[in-house]
Write a structure and sequence with these properties.
Layout (H helix, E strand, L loop, with lengths): L4 E11 L2 E10 L2 E6 L10 E4 L4 E4 L1 E6 L12 H10 L2 E6 L10 H14 L3 E7 L5 H6 L7 E5 L12 H10 L4 E4 L3 H15 L8 H4 L2 H18 L3 E3 L5 H4 L13 E6 H5 L5 H4 L12 H12 L5 E3 L7 H4 L16 H10 L5 H15 L16 E5 L4 E2 L18 E2 L2 E7 L2 E5 L2 E2 L13
Parallel strand pairs: 1-4, 1-5, 6-7, 7-8, 8-9, 9-10, 10-11, 11-12, 12-13
Antiparallel strand pairs: 1-2, 2-3, 5-14, 14-17, 15-16, 17-18, 18-19
Length: about 450
């Protein structure tokens, strides 16, 4: 079988804090050569002229909910992985709160089987911890799965881990990255009870960040961090939403040496509580979108490296579900297709450099989860690449939203930057709103 070759010419390559002009030669699935100029000396080479475009490593989204199995009226691995490719996300790590939940090795393997058949992007999964599955956690092959997910607040089913003794045992028992959702459930329940007494079920959405308060977030995240320090566990705190929490993290050592790390999501960098008036429950997330001051402090911590990763927490629900009254409207929204364009919009506004976007969405998830040969544009690495035109505006509208749920919190927004090509494991899989019929996705492997 002939080796497939692709040559990307005249690119502005963004990698490891630098932007430089050059060409990229791909042979099979792998980046073979990066140079200032590579001549097309093969008869069968596919040439992509990237003149005027930037080439980024494919983004790695460390937190998505693709809803399969069991919740596939909202989303599934096939639909959402395609939306991810259109958004420049070439690899995803999916969460365990499906139905059934991914809390046994058997259920984990079933999800890998689904993804092997239907995923359009590279994939891995988190294993879910509960109050009573420590035996299953100990059976997990730490080299074959992205990590362990614990809900320390706000979970479906029995995934809330609220027994302090069990929690400490889990922290002591695994070398996996323990990723946590931190909101103190007792604080939230008390706040919710008070608001229901005042408003009934139809609580104004503007009260969401008061119910799921700064105090609830800080209490939970500071407790988790104290436990990680006590046990030596490797802790990753998902979706920070408050300025107060950012002071719990350090930036004086390289990411690879950190035992405690943090993530921020697109919606907490983009929206504030002022947006509830217009967007309503469409921007109801857990943790809640909070104040403009919190948003400013999250940006500050992202840029000074106290926050290590930008992710989506892509969590679709149907529009009918989202239109329910406050207590019945689920939290979460779809984001994978629009995350990178939204961050590039922030580049245009002078908030962040392209190099920093690449660091937080590509390099750092690869370092943090020890993803093998991805997240960088390097010779010998898998060719997961995204070509971006920074001056090709488009508007998010119903007919170009690819999520199964059919809506986006960004609907009506115009982005200046367009993803023109997505290359996955050396194959062109997406080009200008069209998908190619290549089955190129692979299961992520980890360098542990």
């Amino acid at each position: 079988m002939k080796l497939k070759r692709t040559l990307i010419k005249n690119a502005k390559i963004v990698n490891e804090g630098k932007i430089f002009s050059g060409d990229i030669l791909i042979e099979g699935e792998i980046i073979k050569q990066i140079d200032t100029s590579i001549s097309a000396k093969w008869a069968d080479v596919n040439i992509i002229d990237a003149e005027g475009k930037y080439v980024l490593p494919g983004a790695i989204d460390d937190q998505v909910h693709f809803r399969e199995p069991g919740l596939t009226h909202k989303a599934d691995i096939a639909t959402e992985s395609k939306a991810a490719l259109a958004g420049g996300i070439t690899s995803f790590i999916e969460m365990p709160n499906t139905n059934p939940q991914t809390t046994t090795v058997e259920k984990l393997e079933e999800k890998f089987e689904i993804a092997a058949k239907t995923s359009s992007a590279n994939y891995s999964f988190m294993f879910g911890g509960t109050n009573d599955n420590l035996d299953e956690i100990l059976k997990v092959d730490e080299t074959a799965v992205a990590g362990l997910k614990l809900f320390l607040g706000s979970s479906t089913g029995n995934m809330l881990v609220d027994d302090p003794e069990i929690l400490e045992k889990i922290f002591q028992s695994t070398n996996m990255v323990i990723s946590v959702h931190c909101e103190d459930e007792a604080t939230i329940r008390e706040n919710l009870k008070t608001h229901i007494e005042t408003y009934g079920e139809d609580i104004p959405i503007e009260k969401h960040p008061i119910i799921r308060s700064e105090e609830a977030c800080y209490l939970s995240s500071s407790t988790a961090i104290a436990l990680a320090k006590k046990t030596g566990a490797r802790l990753h705190v998902f979706h920070l939403s408050t300025g107060k929490e950012t002071h719990l993290f350090r930036n004086d050592i390289p990411l690879k040496d950190k035992k405690i790390t943090a993530e921020v999501c697109i919606h907490h960098l983009w929206f504030s509580d002022e947006d509830y008036k217009k967007k309503g429950t469409l921007i109801k997330w857990n943790p809640a979108v909070k104040t403009a001051k919190d948003r400013d402090q999250l940006w500050e911590a992202l840029l000074d490296d106290r926050i290590d990763v930008i992710a989506t927490d892509h969590a679709p629900h149907t529009i009918e579900e989202k239109k329910n009254v406050y207590t019945k409207a689920p939290s979460g929204g779809p984001l994978v297709q629009h995350a990178l364009p939204a961050m590039l919009e922030m580049y245009h506004k002078g908030k962040i450099s392209i190099e920093k976007i690449v660091e937080k969405m590509c390099h750092n998830p690869a370092i943090l989860f020890q993803v093998e040969k991805r997240g960088y544009i390097k010779e010998g690495y898998y060719a997961d690449l995204v070509l971006v035109d920074l001056n090709n505006p488009w508007t998010v509208q119903k007919d170009n939203i690819l999520y199964k749920c059919g809506w986006s919190p960004f609907e009506g927004a115009t982005f200046k930057s367009r993803i023109t090509h997505t290359i996955l494991n050396g194959s062109l899989v997406y080009h200008n709103f069209e998908f190619q019929n290549t089955k190129a996705a692979k299961r992520l492997t980890f360098n542990r």
